[in-house]
Amino acid sequence: MTHNVHPYVFRLGINRDWRSRWFHRTSYAQFLKEDTLLREWLMKKLKNYMVESIEIERSAREFRLTIRTPRPGLLIGRGGEGIERLKKEILKKARELSASLGSPNFSFKIAVEEVRNPEANASVVARLIVQDLERRIRFRRILKQHVAKMMSARSVEGARILLKGRLDGSEMGRREWIREGKIPLQTLRANIDFARDTAHLPYGTIGVKVWIYKGEIFGENQKPTNSK
Q1: Rounded to whole angstroms, how far apart are CA atoms 211 and 159?
Q2: C-beta atoms surrounding 130 within 10 Å
Q3: What's the Cα-to-Cα distance from 163 to each of 63, 159, 179, 194, rounded to whole Å?
């Protein structure tokens, strides 16, 4: 029997890296819970900034947080005001989750990286689709517009969008999808970006899934290949 596998998890250690990078023999479960809760809180807080991913690195005396977004200027703010305010809020939340982060000898660092090509990023596209759905734009128009934008990106060879729920407020839930190009989900060397999000509407929620295929990776130091 077949079953669904998350495309990111399926390729961990092959052409994907872990988004939490640390190792601890005795506090593994505690650190994993802290990372999960902190990441969920941040994704909800920064949803308007189109955050692509949040990466966490730990060492004996340092906690480093990297936020990747196509809108770094809005997040950093004028003169760094926004990032300093965000750093205090994150540190306060992190201290609630872990007593070790309150130690004066423990270093907390935060970095913001820019997503150069948002049209080729599944997380950003999924968030844009959610915003369009919540503005009550017709779902078929959304599907056609966003798949066209994704395919116009230079690195993209294939794209797929799936919507599931009470589309346009219909009485019965259903799924609608659109695809252009190819999406080789079973090929481990395929560079596939995947994301899912949820649109909250007055008549219910609509699930959004986005797949983007960016060519194949044949070696650790080799960039993804594409035919364009």
Answers
A1: 6
A2: 20
A3: 37, 14, 12, 14
Token pair for 140 = 């078929």
Contact residues for 219 (Cβ-Cβ < 8 A; gap 6+): none
The model carries a pTM of: 0.85
Ordered domains of the chain (ranges, CATH): 7-114 (3.30.300.20), 118-216 (3.30.1140.32)
Please report which confidence band the pLDDT of residue 147 belongs to, taking 50, 70 and 90 as the band edges: very high
Indicate the length of the chain as a whole number.
228
The SS3 assignment for 202 reads coil
Write out pLDDT tens, residues 158-188: 999 999 999 988 889 999 999 999 999 888 9
Distance, CA of 24 to CA of 169 (rounded, Å): 48
Distances (CA, A) of 57 to 9, 54, 141, 163: 19, 10, 40, 34
